[in-house]
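Input.
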Amino acid sequence: MGWDMRFRLKLFSVHLLSSATILLLILGSLYFGWYRWPGWYLTDVTRVILIMVCVDVVLGPTLTLIVANKDKPRRVLARDIGIIVAVQLCALLYGSAQLWSGRPLYYAFSEGILQLVQSYDIDDNEVKLGREKNPALSPHWYSLPRWIWAPLPQDAETSQQIVAAAVSGGDDVTSMPRFFKPWKEGLPSLRSQLKKVDDVAYFAKSEKKILKEKMKAAGLPDDKSDTMPLTGRGHPLLAVFDLTSLEIIAVFKTK
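Output.
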């Protein structure tokens, strides 16, 4: 192997190791802080992650391997690598901002389903109202995911307005922290809305077959009313509850 190739590979290795380390630190922090299962799956952020990996771990070091030349003036080489790193940083900042703004904040039980609530689901005005009227359950920048109950308000007029807005594509009650209540307070209502797998509307017949097979493999009965869909931007999951404690004992996907 020639000296020029060794020089190229050395710069490539340093660039690859540096890029991979930084990316792993960012993704690891987001994963263990906010995106742990089932958050990563429900947010459906695979495309963002692929862009970050392709640009920061594949494209950047590969371009360094191409432009590196031991005979190239150091000023020119530094400029070329600097341009590559700048592009990488733009992709890294873009991806990190997307993941941060979409980080899971709540898993909400509301009207017969469990629903993931991400940061950008709650606008600034609702955050402000939540901190004024319901500070204990309102989000902050440092808030980690919480399980909450998001019932419609008892006031009929307000409830109807929220339902109408949600039907037309507006905000649902799961995006309004002022109405959130502790998870335990919603358990009686949750118990009454548990269903058998065959009765859950969010899955096709073929998917229900897969889910029942997975439940049997896990030693769980598939003929009890102990399940509820867990939804987000990705494909829905099936949550299985212990009927005594009402704790989630398993979460299954159809793929």
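The chain is about 50% helix and 15% strand.
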